[in-house]
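Internal ticket #5521
Category: modeling
Description: The requester needs a full-assembly model to guide mutagenesis choices. All entity lines are attached below as received. Residue total reported by intake: 270.
Assigned to: D.W.
Attached entities:
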Amino acid sequence: MPQREEEHLAGQQASRITYTLESSLDSVNKVEETAEQMAKKAGVDEDELFKITMAVREAAVNAVLHGNSYDPEKRITASFENTGESLVIRISDQGKGIDPANLPDPLAPENLLRGSGRGIFLIRSFMDEVHFKQLHPGTELTLIKHLGTTPSGS
Amino acid sequence: MSMKITTRQVDGVTILDLSGRITLGEGSVLLRDAVRDLLAKGSKHILLNLGDVNYIDSSGIGELVSAYTTARNQGGELKLLNLTKKVHDLLQITKLYTVFDVKDDEASAIASFTRS
């Protein structure tokens, strides 16, 4: 039972969609699909589409799995905005929060064979900007892809 | 689309033909169970054919690594066959491409396993 809000920002072509979702894999898929639709609509190429979709999926997985630990009482929020210049995706959870400065480097030889710990690295690799914000409680990740060099699709 | 696995035996090598998505949840669990079952049954030469895998997330990448280390720790070998460009690129940026033994020809992949 996702809650959906759609805002058309006055005087601009930009619009923002926000979902509040349960901490489940279905929610991860919903967030991924929404990002894919948004990026397609923005006219990004296949390669960028994959990167954006994957980064957003990883952020949603982090929120559901590491943030909220699948807690049925907790929600994730995902908002999607095309400002005309950038795609801005914000994903927040209600978990303990993370310290992005203290994440193990997945490329370090001692971590290379670990079975996890690559999500944030992939998000940073695939997006132009990634911002972490501590909530009380939880974490908000803002993922930004600049549209400057890609066709607008119009 | 979820993942499917079919299993073949060729010259003492078990080939798992994977298709679909290897992602958190179903795909990752299927792969983990399939590799564990094979090792438990004594099949130590495992070739993962990823030619029809169109999507993999960090959980799926982690599962490939775990499958590789689990096989190795049990005296087996696990190799990868037919990477799509997306999977190839992901293994490159995560520096795993040189960890895995990656093949692009099935016959030579089968021949490359160590026979005792």
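Resolution: model delivered.
Comment from assignee: The first strand of chain B starts at residue 4 and ends at 10.
Ticket closed.
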